[in-house]
Amino acid sequence: MPERLDRTDFSARRITLALTAALAAATLLMLPMGAAQAACSKRVYVYSADWCGTCRRLRSYLDLNRIRYTLLDADNPRVKADMQRRFGNLAVPRTLIGRSVVSGLDTAKIQKLCR
To answer: Which PROSITE patterns does the protein's record reference (predicted)?
Structure first.
């Protein structure tokens, strides 16, 4: 006789499938743009904090795509003052590409600005 499965088994499977799908989607965002578009000809500055998960993903994305950047520690008082003056708030991550600002992890905008 086949083993009966508890309803909690199905819930755990659904959660596992949902997490797997979310991880696959996140991985696609992190794929390199390609060798022809791998570098950015503009100066790139990243306002970031060690405690920020999105900041870590942004830095990984830039590293994977071989985009050089200058990292600015958003927890440093001088950098905080600069952010407040430039942006009016202390939200991270914030990326400057040339004269353009990218808030958060917007890979499409980063690709567009680095062309």
So the answer is: GLUTAREDOXIN_2
Question: pLDDT tens for residues 9-50?
Answer: 556 666 665 655 555 555 545 554 444 445 899 999 999 999
Q: Are 101 and 42 in contact (CB under 8 A)?
A: no
pTM of the model: 0.67
